[in-house]
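Structure ticket #2291
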Amino acid sequence: MSYLMRKCVVNLKNVNRWSSVCVVMRNERQRSQSACILKREITNATISHRTFHTSSILNKSVAFKLSDIGEGIREVVIKEWFVKVGDKVQQFDNICEVQSDKAAVTITSRYDGVVKRLYHEVDQTALVGQPLVDIEVEDGEDEGSSSSSDEEQAQVSTKQAADEKAQKVKVLTTPSVRRIAAQFNVDLSTVKPTGKNGRILKEDMLAHLNIDSDASNIVPDATTVKAVEIPVTKAQAKVEVLLEDRVVPVSGFTKAMVKSMTEAMKIPHFGYSEEYDVTKLVEARDLLKTIALERGVKFSYMPIIIKATSLGLTQLPILNSSLDSNCEHIIYKANHNIGVAMDTPNGLVVPVIKNVQNKTILEIASELNSLQEKGTKGQLGLAEISGGTFTLSNIGIIGGTYTKPVILPPQVAIGALGKIQVLPRFDSESNIRKAHILTISFSADHRVIDGVTMARFSNYLKNYLENPTTLLLDL
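Resolution: structure written out below.
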């Protein structure tokens, strides 16, 4: 009997345990069903959210920013716009021409689209990294909506056409033509162009004004302040009295000169001057000039002087070097990149003839003519005015004999040529003769160059220029 009672108690415990297990399983099943329902609701909400954002934009406006054009340039001046609001542009189309403190650069488009906004006017300053124009980029994937987009674009262009009158029409031309137009108050859009791609040439402007090329050089500068003429006597010139002072911002090549000359004043300069009797050089140049013209090259004294300078640098490579920023190392330059200072309408520039040691005198003359033409038109690029290792300044074409040139950092020396004068000199037999005398002045960085080295270099150059036939021995 007791055995049966114990077995019944055990069976009752087993029944209670299985009841608890069933309750737990039922609760777990309910939780699983609730979790599935919640997961389904979240999934549906996510799908509907993604579906809401699947519509695409046909056109979007992109801010075309001024990229870094190198040489540490942080700002430029807008010189000319080649586009206006509403114009369609493609990749590599010219957008505008900008003038930095070192060179003129043409900015090209990186997008295909429609110009929607110009951020700057001509002669305003633009910063690197800031927008130049807004371009509406077209999306070519949705062809069905392109026609409606074009219609909307046409409506916008029509609306903006009324505002284009307030904007100055930009035309293709050169800075010299713009100068003449500003002096005569001529609207460039009224001048009939004959150049390539509708470019206005100087001849077009002169024909529009009915004047010749000589008269265009004596036009009064319209940028000066209006003056009052006070007649003194009939035999004397008129005196002009300015009504007020003018304040002009420092920009372009003037700003570059301010920076470079400020750095140059940190260099301890010393000077060295000498006279060269270049009578034989004058005779040789007269002969070579005729031969060069037959080959289509304008020939002056400078190509010979540049080549002779390069031969002198070969003898004394310390003059073709630079000092590092910490003044701990001297860097000897392998190539003779000789800069030639030029006076241009945009100010003083120093274009560089590269690898002079590997070029003939005629090749130097041809490249020098090309750089002079580009400098006059304001078309020198950064590559053409950078990388110089030695500089020559020819002040003689303006006037003057001796001077004290300022070194262009990071170079260590510079030479300045005076004008060639016909002066009396004694020959070896003490007879007076007519001689062509060239004066030349050097400045050198006294941290690197001493007086003896500069004198030796001058003697090398003097020998080459006084006896130009000796150039043949070292070419």
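Closing remark: The first strand starts at residue 59 and ends at 65.
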